[in-house]
Amino acid sequence: MNNFKAFQVNNVPTFHTAIIEQGKPILSTNEVLIKIAYSDVNYKDALATSKSGGVIRSYPMTPGIDLSGTVVESLDTRFTAGDLVLLTGYGLGVTHPGGYSQYQKVPGDWLIPLPKNLSLRQAMILGTAGFTALLCVNALLNHGMKKTDKIVITGASGGVGSTAVAILHKLGFSSVMALSRKKEASKWLKDLGANAVYAPHEFFPEKTKPLGKQQINYVLDTVGGEQLTQLLPLIAYDGAATLCGNAGGIQLTATVLPFILRNIQLIGIDSVNVPYEKRCPIWQQLADLSIADELLVNEITFEQLPTVIQQLLAGKHQGRTLVNVGDEK
C-alpha cells in the first residue's frame, strides 16, 4: 500500500483545508482498516471545515462523518478482508479522522456490515441524512402517526428533509407538506413524493400566536429556530414534532400552551450516539425501502469539496452530495 490522499482541516499556521498524502495507518487492538469508496457532505461536515464552525476541537483533522468501503485489514475478529461495511456517527470526522480519506482506520465497534440490497454507493447517498430521517419517521410512527395525517417537513430540500419526503411517500403517506425557501426545489420535491411545497412565508400566519388553528398533525423539523417556534402552535391535539437539526438557529421561543392544552410532544432526535444494537435494524430498514436511487444526488471529488461546502453554508445546497473517494464507477 502506497501513500494515499486525504482532505484535511488544520489551524497551523492559520486555519485552512488541504489535500494531503499520508502513509499506511498502524492498527491497534480491535481496529479495522477500510479502503473507502464513498463519503458524503452533511451540514456538520460543512461546519467542521469552517473556522467558526465549533465542531472540531483538535487539529489537524480529517472531516467526513460518514463512510462506506471495503475491509483491507482487521484486528477485530468480527471483520475480515473483503467485508463491505459502512459507518456513520460516533466521533468520525469530529474527534476521530473521518471519511474524506482514501483509507481510514476505525474501531470495529463502530462498523456496520453493509445491509442486503444496498450498495456502497447507495449507503452514502443515504448516510447520516437517511439514518436521521428514518429515526424521525420511526419516532413519529411510534407516537401514533397515521398515513392520512397532515405532516410538515422543514428544510425539505436538504439531505434529511428530502430523504424524509421519499420515506413517507414509500410508506404510503398521502398528505406530506414540504417547506423550502428554494423555489427551484418545488418540482423535484413533488416528484419525490411531497403533496405540496411551500416557502415558509407562504405557509405561516402573519403573526405567531400561542395557540393557532390546528391545521397539522405532525412536524419533522430539520432546522430548528424560528420555523419550529411558528409550527408548534399549529399542531393538532395529540400531535408531535421531531427535531434533529439547528441550521435555523439554536433558540426556541415557545409557550407551554401547545404542550399542556393540546398534549403535543417535542421529540429530540440524535443520530451520533444511537446504540449499536439499534443501528443494524435501522440500516436494513433503509435498504428495504429502496429509496436511495430516487434522491437528488450530486457526485463530487475531494477537489470539489470546498465549493460544495460553501454552497451548503450559504444555504444554496440541495439534496445529497456524494463524495467519490475511491474513484469508484
What is the typical, i.e. mean, pLDDT? 94
CATH superfamily of the largest domain: Medium-chain alcohol dehydrogenases, catalytic domain
Largest sheet, in brief, is: 7 strands, mixed
Radius of gyration over C-alpha positions, nearest whole angstrom = 20 Å
What's the SSE pattern? EEEHEEEEHEHEHEHEHEHEHEHE
Unreliable segments of 5+ consecutive residues: none
Transmembrane segments: 123-145, 151-173
Domain Enoyl reductase (ER): 10-323
GO molecular function, one term: acryloyl-CoA reductase (NADPH) activity
Pfam families: ADH_N, ADH_zinc_N
What would you say this structure looks like, in words?
The protein is α/β, with parallel strands linked by helices and 329 residues long. It folds into 2 domains: 3-124 and 295-324, Quinone Oxidoreductase, Chain A, domain 1, CATH 3.90.180.10; 128-268, 3-Layer(aba) Sandwich (Rossmann fold). It has 9 helices and 15 strands. The protein has helices spanning 43-48, 120-143, 159-170, 186-192, 200-203, 225-231, 257-261, 276-289, 305-313; strands at residues 4-10, 16-22, 31-41, 66-74, 84-88, 103-107, 112-113, 151-153, 176-179, 196-198, 216-221, 235-243, 265-268, 297-300, 320-324. The strands form 3 sheets. Strands 3, 4, 5, 6, 7, 14 and 15 form a 7-stranded mixed β-sheet that branches. A hairpin with a 5-residue loop joins strand 1 and strand 2 (16-22). Helix 2 (120-143) crosses helix 8. The longest helix is centred in the middle third of the chain and has 24 residues, at 120-143. It is globular, with a radius of gyration of 20 Å. The model has no long low-confidence stretch (mean pLDDT 94). This is YhdH/YhfP family quinone oxidoreductase. The chain crosses the membrane at residues 123-145, 151-173.
